[in-house]
Amino acid sequence: MTNKYVLAISGNDIFSGGGLYADLATYTTNHLHGFLAVTCLTALTDKGFEVFATDEAIFSHQLNSLKDVPFSGIKLGLLPNVKVADLALDFVKKHTEIPVVLDPVLVCKEKHDVEVSVLCDELLKFFPYITIVTPNLVEAELLTQMSIKSLDDMKAAAKHLHELGAKNVVIKGGNRLSEEKAIDVFYDGKEISVFETPVLDTNNIGAGCTFASSIASQIVLGKSPKEAVALSKDFVFQAIRHSDQYGVKQNYEED
């Protein structure tokens, strides 16, 4: 079988639970050949969990190095600033013939409100060129400027993101609406679908990254966006269910 090449434009997670580590592991699980363009490094410092953006020139060199690879799909993760996001957008515009998944990571790092607002505006520029966007509840609130407190709010926000230009939308509710169910909402411009799994007691991090890279993998493998979301929802549930409980997230949040 011919190899399918999938690019992750994403950041380094120093604890190896999310970011590029989750992307590559998911691609490998789906028998895809993963490539990376690294947007940032992270570290736990005396200021907390910090994100250090890749130098603009270095990031540009990374993308230029990959310009002739025949990619079958692209997954976008953490874009730490406007300069990096602009370069990533230029690259995506040159690959409009392949599926692109945007995971709009906005709240894993310390950011001032003005900076988050600027990044939101920048991420909205990707919408005409992507196949599906996968925000969590907080990211969906930031992108839509809507308050999301219920399942109906999630559905309304998904429709609004579609109106803003996203062809397909999945909003990750996690366990914020229910202590017993992890609820996600999918919208393709025609139909709302709700996906639920039981909430698991875990300290794992990186589920959102894994979910987005799994969706990218499934679309590359020929599934529709809705099918990809359904399969990826189950994939993440099973991955968490059978994973090691490292607990780093709890440790550094309590410091």
UniProtKB/TrEMBL annotation:
Gene3D superfamilies: 3.40.1190.20. Its EC number is 2.7.1.35. It holds the Pfam family Phos_pyr_kin. Keywords: ATP-binding, Kinase, Magnesium, Metal-binding, Nucleotide-binding, Transferase. GO terms for cellular component: cytosol. One of its GO terms (molecular function) is ATP binding. Belongs to the ThiD family. Residues 13-248 form the Pyridoxamine kinase/Phosphomethylpyrimidine kinase domain. Coiled coil: none annotated. NCBIfam families: PRK12413.1 (NF009078). This is pyridoxal kinase. It catalyses: pyridoxal + ATP = pyridoxal 5'-phosphate + ADP + H(+). It comes from Streptococcus vicugnae. The lineage of its organism: Bacteria, Bacillati, Bacillota, Bacilli, Lactobacillales. GO terms for biological process: thiamine biosynthetic process.
